[in-house]
Design brief:
Length: 353
């Protein structure tokens, strides 16, 4: 499709082993013809324009046309039916309604795509550098299989079964409504497992995963938990008749749902320094709105901000690509090299990262 919305005809984009156009190529040719007419067309006109595709008895042609309409829709090319046009109505392609099918990747495909794209970006004279960078960022945000952070470099999460998630969300809802504490078995970021009692204050959907926040009895403090790390969860009320706790005044789950991974309280706060260059330098204030920003001698933007989960920041810094450099702390740079070395070893051995 041209930038102005007009469909371009590619008569032989794909062929079968016999040299005949494949089904998708035939459909694209049909779509190009329909759009090129720029006016409603009837079934009979379509049948006449493509006699080899729509031959045989009327019922056979009608079935073939019904299948083609469905296949065109799957390709992102829906047809509008105008029943006031002609005796049996007519069809029209609306360019503004066309859309590409949703991209979906397996974790393995997503990792290969991300790695290849980042490698290409490191070639600064790449002719489509800016377009590729934009495409990768869009994929990080929206594509299935590519997580919204660089966890594909060092994954420590597992997908939960839908039924189990639904049951746990019902338990959290019950806990919040009746102010009943819960008992859970939780896996920390380092892989260790512990049992907790938590007074749940609220839960939310954040960047592709469920979280819940509450007072952790073991830590005697408010903590954020990732539902994907929960192994067991059930109500464990201290009092069956009265509420076990009250939610603090002013508590706002939305404030917690906007937390970044490096804000999680894993260790005492340390200052981190990240330098943004190129296109990222222009949007540094949007990437890290709460950071203290200054300009570097090379035109970069240097961000300074506190970090409570260094590993989370390292993963994110790697996902930002070559235009972001984690300058401090030194331990973070060591951690980044270890993650990349682990990924290289996994790809070399052919194992799933």
């Amino acid at each position: 499709m041209n930038p102005d919305g007009r469909m371009v005809e590619f008569p032989s984009l794909m062929t079968t082993g016999t040299g005949r156009p494949s089904a998708d190529a035939r459909l694209l040719k049909l779509a190009a013809w329909l759009q090129g007419r720029q006016e409603p067309v009837t079934r009979e006109e379509i049948y006449e324009a493509f006699p080899d595709d729509y031959k045989g008895k009327p019922d056979a042609r009608e079935k073939k046309w019904t299948r083609d309409k469905g296949d065109l829709k799957k390709l992102g090319i829906p047809l509008s039916f105008l029943d006031e046009e002609g005796e049996n109505g007519a069809y029209l392609v609306d360019p503004s309604a066309c859309a590409l099918p949703k991209l979906e990747f397996t974790p393995q495909e997503a990792t290969v795509l991300w790695t290849a794209g980042q490698a290409a970006l490191r070639t600064h004279d790449h002719p489509l550098h800016d377009d590729l960078e934009l495409a990768l960022r869009k994929l990080i945000v929206g594509a299935k299989g590519l997580p919204p952070r660089a966890s594909s470099l060092e994954t420590d999460t597992t997908e939960l079964e839908r039924e189990k998630v639904r049951n746990w969300l019902e338990t959290l809802t019950d806990a919040v409504e009746r102010r009943k504490r819960v008992k859970l078995v939780y896996r920390r970021a380092d892989g260790s497992v512990s049992k907790r009692h938590v007074n749940v204050y609220g839960y939310a959907w954040r960047r592709g995963q469920w979280i819940f926040v509450g007072h952790c009895h073991a830590r005697d403090a408010v903590r954020l938990f990732l539902l994907e790390r929960v192994q067991e969860l059930e109500l464990d009320p201290a009092d069956k008749k009265r509420p076990d706790y009250e939610i603090p005044k002013g508590f706002n789950i939305h404030a917690w749902s906007r937390q970044e991974t490096w804000d999680y309280l894993v260790h005492d706060p340390i200052e981190a320094v990240v330098a943004f260059r190129g296109s990222l330098a222009k949007i540094a204030s949007q990437i890290l709105p709460s950071a203290r920003l200054s300009s570097g001698p090379d035109g970069s933007r240097v961000a300074r901000f506190p970090v409570r989960n260094l590993r989370g920041l390292v993963r994110q810094a790697l996902s930002w690509g070559p235009e972001a450099e984690l300058v401090e702390p030194a331990a973070g740079r060591v951690m980044a090299r270890e993650m990349l070395a682990k990924l290289e070893a996994q790809l070399t051995e052919g194992t799933t990262p």
